[in-house]
From TrEMBL:
Pfam families noted in UniProt: Glyoxalase
Name of this chain's protein: VOC family protein
Sequence ranges assigned to domain VOC in this UniProt record: 7-132, 152-270
Superkingdom of this protein's organism: Bacteria
Length: 310
């Protein structure tokens, strides 16, 4: 069993537009845009990162906004809900705020004794806020004070036809089964980073998900450094998983592998962080390009990348 994984690092999804995406996460949810860069494999598309003040691992939602992309179709084999932690007693504030911003499908619920608020993102993305005790320091902005602000991720839901092999994988990754409620089973990594829960929803008859705008592209898990990442990679390879080589993503190093249920997992380092190429006071303002794409700056800014209004 692995001991290096601390919980979630980031969640990366697809969107249909950069401006609406930026507005939702910064103006509606009150997160900070901590990086404005591009997709390494498709540099004509932004890669936008949102989180707390420094983009602490466990707080970062990231997006590839493909202009005009068709919406995904929810189903089995995907991350269906991304859940953020908020302070206890703050859900009435969020219910009012989300309604003010005309957020769709707001619904109060409980799960494993925790009060939650479900809602949709601008592309039908599945989100929730859950009230928990959480000492992480939030980013304050856009009228969201510390008493209500998002602390970071709490959990991610995977919707699968059969949970068996994926549950076994999570246990190998250091997660422990906590409880089952209906068709949802909860796993938590002990002494994690706060973003340390994964819920598996088992729906044997669900149709396969079809990826598109609003779909999660991959779920990333946190390790402290490159040494820990190499240990995880070797253990996965030794167990028979097909894992990519280590890839430099500028702000972290990453490895990827596909899970039995179809969800793409990443293991990402906490180093070097989002302040490696701009000072902390100005994170997410300037367009930062990977070295291999710097020569494309003029054409990207003039032809492909829409101007994002803050």
């Amino acid at each position: 069993m692995l001991t290096q994984i601390n919980g979630l690092h980031h969640v990366t999804s697809l969107a249909s537009g950069a401006q609406s995406n930026s507005d939702f996460f910064t103006k509606t949810l009150g997160l900070r845009r901590v990086k404005k860069t591009v997709n390494f494999d498709a540099p004509e598309v932004y890669h936008l990162y949102y989180g707390d003040e420094m983009g602490t691992p466990g707080s970062v939602m990231t997006y590839f906004p493909f202009p005009g992309a068709r919406r995904g179709r929810p189903g089995a084999g995907e991350v269906s809900i991304t859940t953020f932690a908020v302070p206890k007693g703050s859900l009435p504030f969020w219910a009012d705020r989300l309604a003010t911003f005309d957020v769709k499908n707001i619904k109060a619920e409980t799960r494993f004794g925790e009060n939650r608020l479900r809602f949709d993102g601008p592309d039908g993305d599945g989100f929730a806020l859950v009230e928990v005790e959480d000492e992480r320091t939030p980013w304050e902005g856009q009228g969201v004070s510390a008493e209500h602000a998002i602390r970071g991720f709490h959990s991610a839901d995977m919707r699968l036809r059969d949970a068996g092999a994926s549950a076994e994988l999570l246990r190998f990754m250091g997660y422990e089964k906590i409880d089952t409620e209906g068709d949802i089973t909860r796993f938590r990594v002990p002494a994690g980073n706060g973003a340390d829960v994964v819920d598996i929803e088992t729906l044997p008859g669900a149709a396969p998900a079809q990826q598109g705008a609003g779909s999660v592209h991959h779920l990333a898990f946190s390790v402290t450094d490159r040494k820990a990442q190499l240990e995880v990679r070797k253990a996965l390879l030794d167990t028979g998983w097909q894992v990519t080589p280590v890839i430099d993503r500028d702000y972290f190093w990453a490895i990827y592998f596909r899970t039995p249920g179809g969800v793409l997992f990443e293991v990402a380092t906490n180093e070097p962080g989002f302040d490696r190429d701009e000072d902390s006071a100005n994170l997410g303002q300037a367009l930062k390009l990977p070295r291999q794409h710097e020569h494309l700056r003029d054409v990207l800014e003039s032809r492909y990348l829409e101007k994002i209004r803050d």
